[in-house]
């Protein structure tokens, strides 16, 4: 089952061969072992794409560059270590996916890793440039070029994440169906996962430049999933699980409440983003309590 985490997941290098046949997710026929491999790949993908680039940090870096480094303190960047085993696994999806999907995943990840590396390398170059006071020789020409490239690279990260998730999620869903085939809480588990997916899409959209109507549409999508999830039949034989499920929905409501407040104010800030991420982390925690 897909255990979702905002911090880390247990991941492994996928070396086994999958027997699922098909040209797309709908036509794949996963056995239990194969399904678990696909889910492990999915979990690793979620973990690595979040660890490698902190868009909050990148936003601070770009702001620093736009001010020509004229701030009291340069942004402090603490990168989360990423396992080489995990990145190798993502570049080698194996045959649990059709060849075309596997090739696309390799392409997206090569690009994602390259952009991630260049984002932080640019910052190192820029700080050296400011420290050496080379801007006095070119009137910030090189610094402006670095800043321009940094913004262009930063704009690619959300799109690459979306492309990876859009390609991978249908296969993970198909795999999870196989693992949940005889689970009486299957519908509730899938509903919880769908809620989290919509919340993550909302966070991807969020930025100071975000259009209010786009975030309103994202709010409506999360709310619609929540309403559908709340209408699922209660399982009398699973009182503890149902209590945790109801708790999950309450925390989704808290996320929606925070987003609703920001939509009302029409202001989307770094502090606002952090508040939403805090609510999101609580949702993740409640989801994991439900499925355990």
From TrEMBL:
The UniProt entry, under PROSITE patterns, shows: PROKAR_LIPOPROTEIN
Q: Name one Pfam family in it.
A: DUF6845
Q: What is this protein called?
A: DUF3829 domain-containing protein
Q: Which residues form the DUF3829 domain?
A: 30-182, 184-282
Higher taxonomy: Bacteria, Pseudomonadati, Bacteroidota, Bacteroidia, Bacteroidales
The record's keywords, sorted A to Z, are: Signal
Q: Specify the superkingdom.
A: Bacteria
Would you indicate the residue range of the signal peptide? Answer: 1-22
Query: InterPro entries under this entry?
Result: DUF3829-like_C (IPR053996), DUF3829-like_N (IPR049273)
């Amino acid at each position: 089952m897909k255990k979702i985490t905002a911090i880390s997941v247990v991941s492994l290098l996928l070396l086994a061969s999958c027997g699922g046949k098909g040209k797309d997710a709908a036509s794949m026929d996963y056995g239990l072992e194969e399904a678990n491999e696909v889910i492990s790949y999915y979990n690793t993908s979620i973990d690595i794409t979040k660890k490698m680039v902190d868009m909050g940090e990148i936003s601070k870096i770009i702001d620093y560059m736009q001010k020509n480094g004229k701030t009291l303190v340069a942004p402090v960047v603490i990168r989360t270590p990423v396992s080489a085993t995990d990145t190798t696994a993502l570049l080698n999806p194996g045959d649990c996916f059709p060849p075309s999907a596997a090739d696309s995943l390799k392409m997206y990840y090569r690009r994602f890793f390259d952009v991630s590396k260049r984002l932080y390398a640019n910052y190192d170059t820029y700080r050296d440039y400011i420290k050496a006071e080379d801007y006095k020789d070119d009137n910030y020409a090189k610094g402006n070029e670095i800043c321009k490239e940094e913004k262009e690279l930063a704009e690619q990260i959300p799109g690459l994440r979306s492309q990876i998730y859009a390609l991978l999620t249908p296969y993970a869903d198909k795999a999870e169906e196989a693992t949940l085939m005889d689970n009486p809480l299957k519908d509730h588990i899938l509903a919880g996962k769908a809620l989290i997916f919509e919340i993550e899409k909302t966070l991807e959209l969020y930025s100071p430049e975000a259009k209010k109507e786009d975030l309103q549409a994202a709010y409506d999508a999360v709310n619609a999933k929540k309403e559908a999830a709340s209408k699922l039949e209660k399982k009398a034989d699973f009182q503890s699980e149902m209590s945790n499920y109801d708790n999950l929905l309450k925390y989704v409501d808290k996320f929606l409440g925070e987003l609703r407040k920001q939509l009302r104010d029409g202001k989307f800030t770094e502090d606002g983003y952090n508040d939403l991420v805090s609510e999101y982390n609580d949702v993740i925690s409640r989801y994991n309590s439900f499925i355990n």
